[in-house]
Amino acid sequence: MPWIDGGYALARWLTGNATDAEDVLQDACARAWAALGSYAGGSARAWFLTIVRNCAYTWLARNRPHALEYTDDPAAAEAERGIELPGYAPQPPVPPEALAIEQADRERLAAAVAALPPVFRETLVLREFHALGYREIAELTGVPVGTVMSRLARARSRLIADLGGSPA
Fold first, then answer.
1. Over 60: is that where the pLDDT of 40 sits?
2. 89 assigned to some structural domain
3. How many domains does the chain have?
4. CA-CA distance, 118 to 10, in Å (whole number)?
5. Are 100 and 62 members of one domain?
6. Contact at 8 Å (CB) between 68 and 113?
7. pLDDT digits (tens, 9 = 90+) for 104-121
8. Roughly what angle, to the nearest 10 degrees, separates helices 44-63 and 4-15?
9. Distance CA 106, CA 91 (A)
10. How many CB atoms lie within 10 A of CB 6?
11. Is 61 domain-assigned?
12. Is residue 80 part of a domain?
């Protein structure tokens, strides 16, 4: 499937590590294969990522119920959690000082994204890392487009504030 890499990246962001993401992706692929005959059209990528998302939340509820937060106000329930992220390959030839600065910036950004409440992090990852449109994200997450836009704006504002910029 052409969306395996995107599904893996989403599962990794939602579960927090590679091993759990592989389990989620395997389950998602099996479910997608089984449901292929009932696919009703539309964006196949969004359909597959929806399956990955649902599998990730099912896996988290089963294996890490404390990791899921069920709240009407994610801002009030925000808590910091460490998350293992994939490494980044430097592009040669870059001076070692520049590499150190870039790595520190990546780590700060990854930590800031990981510290976002799950609903904000999910929306930000789908938009910025998977380049899904607002409507696709709304369909995938089952919320109105306005909610997607609001979550994205709040996620970006928190990132700016966490990374030292002035909050929007």
1. yes
2. no
3. 2
4. 12
5. no
6. no
7. 888 888 888 888 998 899
8. 30
9. 14
10. 19
11. yes
12. no
